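agent> step 3/5: call structure_predict on target 'Cystathionine beta-lyase MetC' (Methylobacterium symbioticum).
agent> reason: downstream docking stage needs a structural representation; sequence fetched in step 2, passing through unchanged.
tool.input:
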Amino acid sequence: MRKNPNHGPATRLVHAGRDPSEQHGFVNTPIYRGSTVLYPTYDAIKHRRGRYNYGTSATPTMDALTEAWTELAGAAGTVVTPSGLAALTVALMAAVSAGDHLLVTDSAYRPTRQFCDGVLKRFGVETTYYDPTIGAGIAALMRENTRAVLVEAPGSQSFEMQDIPAIAEVVHARGGTVIMDNTWATPLLFPPHERGVDIAVEAGTKYLSGGSDLLLGLTSANAKHFPAVRRTFDHFALCAGPEDIFLALRGLRTMNLRLREHGRAGLEMARWLQARPEVLRVLHPALPEDPGHAIWKRDFSGASGLFGVILKPCPEAALAAMLDGLELFGMGFSWGGFESLVIPFDCAPYRTATTWEPGGWALRFHIGLEEVADLKADLEAGFARLRAAS
Ligand SMILES: Cc1ncc(COP(=O)(O)O)c(C=O)c1O
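tool.output (status=ok):
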């Protein structure tokens, strides 16, 4: 399909990265498995002529997804990795070197922190965590050797918004790189590179998959940073499996519809929870009462289905009674699939730049594609158990 700059994101999702005329008319790019790629002549192998050289670096299946994602994200290029965390590590390893200083939002996905405090530290990179709401105030934390700033908006547990254009302006003025974990919004709701992000990461495990049946990551970058991202990906040979990429392509074609429904149902559930007497606060940037609402409204075109709820203080046994009897909400990590999930969480043990004192038990909800009325009834029964055990 020829690229048409006038096409909207929904059209791009359907058509990007595939050309039926090259697949005997079949709509989808097939799964290419393989390590060896044969060259037709001595000259071709000597000069590595041809698009494909070896299975770790590129296959037509990989290209189908990376080309589509590049178009969707407004990037110069994308690599696809076996998990979202792997995509984050590629972004970080592409941006920093020994002796560099890195700034990471205190709200970052916890394994991102563990990578910074573990691997990056061992290789001579110092990480400082900052208050996610710092905005242009990040300037005060920038050092001579600050090479990169990692943002995540909203934080995937605590849901603080970040003023990414303001941060990007400061960081770019000092020659630094802005890396973003954009998993919550996807490029459909937040076009990262248009807003000043140099390297954007998506855990495709979540909304791209939509099925809770695969692990995958994508790292996209603008023209200045893609060569480093591509080199890092090649050095680690961090290639994803062809079946998983095929499943991700299948998810991509319907992601727009699913995301809208997750967002619509999520906001309805968030409003309903806000009105519950057992609830202290709802952490959801699309709610006007949320401290990050103005930034969300300015920079994002919608919300996904993940948000937080702080309960009014109650005994732990009452929380357990509520959660243990839920029929539709599963308790488990990850999110973005068709099924609703809830997890209890506590950011206090690992925060270093900010404190986490929510005032009650914290729950993270992912609203799936069930009927909202059924989800409310499940929680209604849960709140009744909570009250009975309080
Ligand atoms: C915000 C965020 N980023 C990245 C990841 C990592 O994705 P994966 O599980 O594919 O490694 C997750 C996973 O939960 C996440 O929530």
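agent> step 4/5: record observation. The pocket of pyridoxal-5'-phosphate is lined by residues 83-85, 109, 156, 181, 183, 203, 205, 215, 217, 334 (CB under 6 Å).
agent> proceeding.
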